[in-house]
Design goal:
Blueprint lengths: L1 H11 L4 H37 L6 H28 L8 H16 L1 H16 L4 H23 L9 H25 L7 H7 L9 H32 L1 H38 L2 H28 L1 H6 L5 H16 L1 H16 L4 H23 L10 H29 L2
Helix pairs in contact: 1-2, 1-6, 1-10, 2-3, 2-4, 2-5, 2-9, 2-10, 3-4, 3-5, 3-8, 4-7, 5-7, 6-7, 9-10, 9-15, 9-16, 10-11, 10-13, 10-14, 11-13, 11-14, 13-16, 14-16, 15-16
């Protein structure tokens, strides 16, 4: 999913730094809205893991029913929010050229939200049953479709008009519809999940008192809030970078695109650790919970160390993939050095959030994340970005990233300590 955004950014970058900047701010706004419902859907897999641990297998279809209804409600709310942001785009204080490009592109992203959330609903249901291969194959297929359609619609190949940045939006809508339809088909047809079309549709007509709305919101709401607070900080950083200029925003966009790709590897380890931990927690096996925690953290650290070295050694070459403009390459390469520094914190935080979700601890971690990003990182980054000495290496867009790095590191320390503290006192 993130590689889709990566290739969108890579291919749009050929059009110019203003298109690159517009893609960055539009995607930041889109995920600012989308990340909360995405976070809520992540609770579905954890709840299935807990049900498996307690051997409550008869409730799966009811969980799927309630999860689907909540997903659709959140999709409707998200579409309304994105529409309001597009209609009031002036509040983001971007350059006129970026505004003209961003508004129609953001509208196209808005129409892709509902199929994207349906995909996440079905994917996390499958993930809860440890059936992840289907989702992997579908997302890789969608990535290929998106890249091909980008080539057609952005540049005007195979007889199509050249839609520029909007072409990436059309490709995104089509690829996300493919994701939704394919993932629903896999969830309802695969023998690896106990949910099929008949019992799923029948669940909507059952008049049973068993519902999972309370459980989903008690676990999913804080989870969604955690991801919202983090992504909102990065979305705010993109908007703040845009106030400094379109080149600063373009450099921020290329660097955050690469950092997001590496984060997803830690995020995958986090999701797997969360499901395994939830099953062990449901069984009351705290020894296995601790073992999953230690191994999850170890895997996360190894992966992120590798990415940190890549960013340090090849920062300029990576920036050069997105643009040929010297100023943007210089600023982007500097930001990738900062991205290398916070890779370890990023990995630890991602895994710790998943582990805490697996043991149903989500409220206090949300407070930690809020303090780290919104009380410390964003104000400090804003101060450095507007530092009176414009020649300082820690000012401008670099200052924003230094603030984010500090917030990430503090959040990682607090969340990791929280997990082992709870186990030690259980």
């Amino acid at each position: 999913m993130v590689l889709t955004g990566f290739f969108d950014t890579l291919m749009v970058g050929d059009l110019g730094h203003e298109e690159l900047a517009a893609a960055g701010v539009s995607n930041s706004i889109f995920f600012f809205v989308a990340v909360f419902p995405i976070g809520v859907t992540m609770a579905y897999a954890t709840i299935i893991g807990i049900l498996q641990g307690k051997n409550k297998t008869s409730s799966y279809r009811l969980l799927a029913r309630d999860s689907f209804l909540i997903t659709m409600a959140l999709a409707l709310l998200g579409v309304v929010c994105i529409y309001l942001f597009e209609d009031n785009f002036h509040i983001f204080n971007q350059t006129p050229e970026v505004v003209v490009l961003s508004k129609p592109y953001l509208t196209l992203l808005m129409w892709s939200l509902t199929p994207m959330l349906i995909f996440f609903f079905a994917k996390h249901i499958c993930d809860g049953f440890s059936f992840t291969q289907g989702g992997m194959i579908i997302t890789i297929s969608a990535l290929v479709i998106n890249v091909i359609l980008n080539w057609v619609f952005i540049y005007g190949n195979l007889g199509s008009a050249a839609y520029g940045l909007d072409g990436a939006g059309y490709a995104t809508i089509i690829s996300r519809i493919f994701l939704a339809v394919s993932m629903m088909w896999v969830m309802l047809k695969s023998h690896k999940t106990p949910i099929n079309f008949k019992n799923f549709t029948k669940a909507f007509t059952e008049k049973r008192r068993i519902t999972f709305y309370k459980k989903i919101f008690s676990l999913g709401f804080p989870t969604g809030l955690q991801y919202f607070l983090e992504v909102a900080a990065f979305a705010g950083a993109a908007i703040l970078a845009g106030t400094l200029g379109s080149k600063q925003l373009a450099s921020h966009n290329l660097a955050i695109t690469l950092a997001t790709v590496t984060y997803m590897f830690a995020g995958g380890i986090s999701a797997g650790s969360s499901i395994c931990t939830a099953k062990a927690f449901g069984n009351g096996n705290l020894y296995n919970v601790k073992q999953y925690g230690r191994n999850g953290h170890l895997l996360g650290l190894i992966v992120m160390i590798v990415f940190a070295l890549i960013f340090l050694l090849f920062n300029r070459q990576l920036a050069n993939l997105f643009t040929n403009e010297p100023d943007v390459i210089l600023m982007g390469s500097q930001l990738l050095i900062l991205a290398a520094i916070f890779q370890l914190g990023d990995g630890l935080q991602a895994v710790s959030v998943g582990l805490l979700r697996g043991i149903e601890d989500t409220v206090l971690p949300s407070v930690f994340i809020f303090i780290a990003y919104w009380i410390i990182a964003m104000p400090f980054g804003y101060y450095l970005a507007n530092h009176p000495n414009s020649d300082a290496i820690y000012s401008g867009v670099n200052g924003i990233w230094i603030g984010l790095s500090i917030g990430l590191t503090l959040s990682a320390i607090a969340l990791t300590y929280r997990f082992y503290y709870l186990l030690r006192n259980s």
